[in-house]
Amino acid sequence: MAKHRRDVAKDSIIKSMLPANTGLDIFESSAGRGELAIELQDAEHRVRVSNFKPGSLQFDIPEDIVNLEAGLPYEDASFDVIICREVIEHIACNLPLLKEFARCLRPGGTLILTFPNKLSLPSRLYHLFTGFYNGLKSPINPGVFFGEAHVNLISYHEMDYLLRDSGMSQVVGRSSDIRPGAWLTAPLIPVVRLLTWYFLFQYKKKAQEHRKDKPEFVAYNREIYEAITSTELLLGKDVIMSARKN
């Protein structure tokens, strides 16, 4: 089965975030059928994948059956790159898994995550009128098997914080999927940028956990501001983040 055009675009950005050399040790968590993994293997990388249960993988790639909620069965510093593609929103507690990813990365290694863009303008408008977000548009039905629904939507700035708390830095955010209808919300971009600037840099400058009166906090807020007010992340349906292990 051919990849959907949205997956082609997403995987193209993921591959652009890889270190620029061959022979990398790459782990893709919950890789599904393994389309991206086989492309990386064909590009002369050493690839290992996991899935929650057997039967999904369709290519000859080393596969482990792993419950990501229970940790990773790998030694410290095992991989140059870890990819977690459209999985993290299915995990109830993100921080323990992110710390496991960091543990299994070599120093300077790259972590790449993709997940639904909770803070896109279409998603914000949907939330305004329904109380739900794109990616979780209605309540999860009782009895749905845990992990098969989006149980933990997370925003860009929340993920940035968790990545840094896990020992990562040099965080970069992109989006690969801007739907035509999203452009209808584009007239709101200047207003959103202005209000976001005010609340990130001016509002309650000395609130204890959100202080804005020190240069290092201003610099961090500026990084977040530039990311979440970019046209890509204001209109895109997904987020693709990369970070490097310190």
TrEMBL record:
<keyword id="KW-0489">Methyltransferase</keyword>
<dbReference type="InterPro" id="IPR029063">
    <property type="entry name" value="SAM-dependent_MTases_sf"/>
</dbReference>
<keyword id="KW-0808">Transferase</keyword>
<keyword id="KW-1133">Transmembrane helix</keyword>
<feature type="transmembrane region" description="Helical">
    <location>
        <begin position="181"/>
        <end position="201"/>
    </location>
</feature>
<dbReference type="Pfam" id="PF13489">
    <property type="entry name" value="Methyltransf_23"/>
</dbReference>
<keyword id="KW-0472">Membrane</keyword>
<dbReference type="GO" id="GO:0032259">
    <property type="term" value="P:methylation"/>
</dbReference>
<protein>
    <submittedName>
        <fullName>Methyltransferase type 11</fullName>
    </submittedName>
</protein>
<keyword id="KW-0812">Transmembrane</keyword>
<dbReference type="GO" id="GO:0008168">
    <property type="term" value="F:methyltransferase activity"/>
</dbReference>
